Every structure is written in C-alpha cells, then in structure tokens.
C-alpha cells in the first residue's frame, strides 16, 4: 500500500507537470501570435512608406514637367521660376532620399524582426519538442509503473 501511495503521488506530480507544460505551451502560442501581429504591423508601415515614396516620385515628375512648361511659356520669367523649381526639386529629392533611407531602415528592421521571429519560433519548436519528449518519457514511465503494478498484483 505504501508503494501504491508513492506511485499515486508520483502520478499526480507528473500530471501537475503535464498541466504546467500545457500552460507554458499556451503562453508560447500567445507570444508567437503577438510576434506575428508585430511583423504584420511592420509590413503595413513598409507598405505605407512605399506608397508615400511613389507619391513623392510622382510629385517630383510633375514638378519637373511644370518647370519645363514654365520655361517654354516665358523665357523672361524662366530664370526666377527655374530657381524656384530647382529649390522645390531639391527639397523633394531630399525628402525622397530621406524616405528611401527610412524605407531601407524599415526593410532592415523588418528583416531583423523576421530573423528574430524565426529564431524564437525555432527555439519554441525545440522547447515544444523537448516538452513532448519529456511527456512521452513520463507517459512511458507511468505505463511501466502501471504494468509493474499489475504484474505485482
């Protein structure tokens, strides 16, 4: 009876450990979901910045065409308007350059986040596999104890 009591205590302890492992697995899945949402948000920001760059490129093309028309319409006013257009062009190019730099930084950040996510995911998979292996070992042990107990009685 004492041996049975000890085996029962061991089984209960193993069941508590299994429940703890299941709780950890749920927490890991929640962490993964949060990471995926973070990556999704980064992708949305990247798309917004890409759209903004396209818009700025169109604005730049429109500014260049406008400057050409102004030169054709009035040679006398061309010098002053060309300076204004060149100034606007420089500002747009500077802004475009800044946006491209920011876009590249966002891409690098996204790539880094994806690498970290993949690393974390692999780590979680490894831990899950280890947990499952431990669970299998515990289940085999419990089965062994049951069969030993059955053989004894």
Automatic annotation (TrEMBL):
It comes from the Eukaryota. The keyword Zinc-finger does not apply. Keywords: Cell projection, Cilium, Coiled coil, Cytoplasm, Cytoskeleton, Developmental protein, Differentiation, Flagellum, Microtubule, Spermatogenesis. Residues 71-96 are annotated as: Disordered. Residues 71-85 have a biased composition (Basic and acidic residues). One of its GO terms (biological process) is cell differentiation. It is found in: Cell projection, Cilium, Flagellum; Cytoplasm, Cytoskeleton, Microtubule organizing center, Centrosome, Centriole; Cytoplasm, Cytoskeleton, Spindle pole. GO terms for cellular component: centriole; centrosome; microtubule; motile cilium; spindle pole. The keyword Acetylation does not apply. Belongs to the ODF2 family. This is Outer dense fiber protein 2. It comes from Crotophaga sulcirostris (Groove-billed ani). The lineage of its organism: Eukaryota, Metazoa, Chordata, Craniata, Vertebrata. The gene is Odf2.
């Amino acid at each position: 009876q004492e041996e049975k009591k000890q085996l029962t205590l061991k089984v209960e302890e193993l069941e508590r450990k299994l429940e703890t492992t299941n709780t950890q697995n749920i927490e890991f899945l929640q962490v993964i979901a949060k990471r995926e949402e973070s990556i999704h948000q980064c992708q949305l920001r990247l798309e917004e910045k890409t759209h903004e760059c396209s818009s700025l490129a169109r604005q730049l093309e429109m500014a260049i065409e406008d400057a050409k028309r102004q030169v054709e319409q009035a040679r006398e006013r061309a010098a002053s308007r060309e300076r204004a257009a060149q100034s606007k062009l420089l500002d747009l190019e500077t802004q475009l350059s800044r946006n491209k730099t920011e876009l590249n930084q966002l891409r690098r950040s996204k790539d880094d986040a994806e690498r970290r996510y993949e690393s974390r995911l692999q780590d979680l998979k490894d831990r899950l596999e280890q947990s499952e292996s431990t669970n299998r070992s515990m289940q085999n042990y419990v089965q062994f104890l049951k069969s030993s107990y059955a053989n004894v009685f």
